[in-house]
Structures are given as C-alpha cells and as structure tokens.
# Entry
Amino acid sequence: MHHNFIDEYSHTGSFLCRRDPRAKLWVLGVFILLVLLQPREDIRGLLCYGILLAAVFACARLPLRPIVVRILALLPFVLLTGWSMRGSRGGGHPGLVLAVIVVKAVEAMAAVFLMVATTPFPRLLKALEGMRFPLIMIRMLSFLYRYIYLILDEFMRMRQAQLSRTVDNRSSIGRRLRVFSSILGHLFVRSYEKGERVYLAMCARGYDGTVRVLAHPALARTAGWADGAFLAIALAALAGVEALCLMPWK
Amino acid sequence: MSYALEIEHLCFSYPDGTQVLRDLSFSISEDDSVGLIGPNGAGKTTLLLHLNGILRGEGKIKVFSREISDENLARVRRDVGLVFQDPDTQLFMPTVFDDVAFGPLNMGLPQDQIGGRVRQTLRAVDMEASVERPSHHLSFGEKKRVSVATVLAMAPRLLVLDEPTSNLDPGHRQQLIDILKGISVTKLIASHDLEMIRVLTRQVILLSGGRVVAYGPTREILSDHHLLKSNGFFLLS
# Structure
C-alpha cells in the first residue's frame, strides 16, 4: 500500500514549491501574527488578508477540495472556542466577535496548509532545523512523517483481516464499534512496541539522548534572487495591507 | 589469535521470566565470518542484541578484547554494527540521506565529511541514486540495502546481521548476498537461509533452546543432516 497524502502537492513545480522553505516560514510567521493581531470587531483587515491568501492560493495551482475538507474538519473546534469567548470582556456584538475569531482561524489554517502543501516534508523539517527550532519537536515531527504511513498500512491490513472473517454483514452497530475499538487497541499496542524497537535501533547506531544534526548554511548564503524577491514582495504586501487597515475608511 | 567477540557463560531471561539464553560461551576470531542458525525462539535475536550492549544479561561479553560496560558503550556501538531484521525499524529518519548520516553524526565524524561518507556508503550498496528519497517510498529490497548502508557508514569492525535475506525475492536476495560478500569485516549473520549461510560464512553456530548445540566449519555442520533435522531444519535434499 502506498500513501503519499503529506507530500501530494509539493512537487507540482509552482513558484511557491520552488521557494526556500525558510523564506516561506518567515512569511507564514509574520502573516499569522498579523492576522491574530487584528482587532476583535473589525473584519476589514481580515478581508484584505483573505484576498491576498486567495491570490497566492490561485498562483500555487493547488486544488480547493483538500483544504476545504481539512478546514471543515477543524471548524467545530474553532466554533466551540469562539462560542466560549463570545462574552469575554471588551463587549462588542457577539456575532461579529465570533465571526472574527472564525475568520482568523480559517485564514491561519489556510496559510499553514499552503506552507505544508507546497514544501516536501523533509525539506520543511530541515528548514525548521536551520531556524533553530527545538530539535526534540522536529524529531517528533520526523517520526510522525516516517511512521504514519506504516501505522495506516497496519490499520488497513487488520481491517482487511477482520473483513475477511466477517460473514454476517448485518451485525449491530454496537458490535461493529466493539470490533473497531479492538483494532484500534491492537494498533496502539503494536505502534508502542514498534516505538520501543526503533529506540533500540537508534541506540545501536550511537544515539545517547543527544539529537545531532548537520549544520545548515545560512539562508543569506544559499537563497537565490528569487527567494530574496519572494521574501521582500511578500513582506511588502503584508505591510501594505496593514497600512491600508490603519487608514480611516469612509 | 585475536578475537572479535568472546562470550563466557551468558544467561538472559526476559522480565516475564522466560529464560532465553542459557550459559552461552563461544568466541569469534577477527576477520572470520560466522553464521548463526537455529529454530524460531532459539534466542538468536536476543543474543545479537547483547553484542552491542542493548540487552545486558549475566556473564561476560568482550568485543575486540574490551568487556562491555557502561563506560565503553559508545566505543562498542561504533565497533559492532547491528542491522535489524525489519528495515522499517532500522530506517527511522525521513530520508535515506538522514538515515545513513545518523550513525556517523553520533560518532562525531566532522561535519564536512558526512556527505562524502553517506554517498560513498550508498554507492557500495548500489543506492546512491536514492539519496534524497523518503525511506517509506523505497521497495523492500531497497530498504534492506539502505539498512546495511546505515551501519556500514559507521565503519564497524564487526558486522552483525539479523535475517538479512528474509522476505526478499530471489533477485534482491542475490543482490544483497553479492553486496555482503564484498564487505571485508568480521561478520556474524543470523538466518534461516542455509544457502546464504553456505555462501557467506566459514563457521556456523547452531543455537537451540538458548544453548550452543554445535559450532564448527560451515560445510561440516550444514552437511550433518541428522544434527540439523534434530534441531528443526528439514532439508529438501
């Protein structure tokens, strides 16, 4: 079985795929910060950022469906958080406050999706290493990337084995749930054991608790003019939107 | 004669009380190649995990005349390269390059030599073209070869392989055997693949029930059908 849902769109060759991941991470960080700092009762700035995001999205030649599915999956949590914050101090129209929270979250999620979808995951991890992210976090993400496909394979194999032995398709929902939860339990135990074995394999190759990585050349030394131009134009665009929001609108 | 490995009275039980190794004693000379055979549950993998100090049973284990202890564990793990049976256990980094570089980085090899060492090792197992590929996109045969490379990159003096040819199709199996044949360090290979053991090793240890049942020249042991049959090997011819 061959999955590739993480790196599915990162080799499309669009201009965003070709940029240095570190430049993209800087822009992403600034973008999310500016979106989160928007006033709680003013949606105009968020609209501008939304238009900017849509423009970049269109240029990156990404399909719309996967991002919509992912955002819809996370939306209930956002709505719950927004609902719990509607009456917090500062007042304002509860509907507008909720709308602003939801739009902020959706824009931040869309930006993260753009980043992850246009960067092969190993390069993203290398960029995080280069930007001095905590190594333990990067190692956790790297294990997730390496083993998520294996765990999914394992799940599918167990499900197929279960279906091969299922004769009566009319079993009750309760029984199906019991079988499903048993598969999940086995999956957890097997993943745990796999983790133990991987740790032993790491020890066998000299791992002593210290994560060691290859040093990265600085962004300024390796980035081409295109990366520099991307960084400058993106930051200028964000500054432009912010200036537009600060101006009094009539 | 200098020894790569000396084991004296090694005993080991798992925490649930199952005794796996019972008073095991043998030694392997430097530059020898030794096969380790025995039925499932004989204790082969458990024994291999002792050779670089991952498991620590009772008894004495010396690697290149150095007894394994907490103080020299790093040195022992540099000398003994252990390739696990399941390549998905052996390959845990996102890309082939990162995986092969993992050992040399832990050994403290200078940063400017890592890239060269990784490429040179991958060339030796005919995988240089896959250096930037994610490990989970490799075929099973490719994963096995990269697994060997991850250990070769550390330039071990004793190469220990657990079931290197298991689940390989005949073509990939032969390719791996040819690669292993070309590696000139002391080797200890645990396997059920008697044909591969015949081709790659000079001596064979037959392990059964956690004990060494026989240790001698490969040709002698593998032609003793009575001995093999009484220890769970049913030969076709």
